[in-house]
Design brief:
Layout (H helix, E strand, L loop, with lengths): L6 H7 L6 E4 L3 E5 L7 E7 L6 H7 L3 H16 L6 E4 L15 E5 L9
Antiparallel strand pairs: 1-2, 2-3, 3-5, 4-5
Length: 116
Amino acid sequence: MSEADCLFCGIVAGRIPAQVVHETERTLAFRDVNPQAPTHVLVIPKDHHPTAAALAAADHGLADDVLKAAHAVAEQEGVAESGYRLVFNTGPGAGQTVFHVHGHVLGGRDLTWPPG
């Protein structure tokens, strides 16, 4: 998939609508269209990196920015105190369907383990 075809790059560019809840210079966070918990927000780097591994290798400090943005979302959504889950699916075998790295911030209910 090229950046031109990437769903999340389209959201960053403003071509595709999303319910944005948090934004920094390098990250964007928006509500998942198919939420799996009362709080389900996706946090992405604005630059295109297909997987978490590619993100970690490509840009020193950007993975840290994504994690900081995820925690800011958890605080903003009121789930930081009670607990939240941060999930990065990396590769098709892990369930990644959009190949622009994204963290799922999940909270607002008890989250079981293993996740399934």
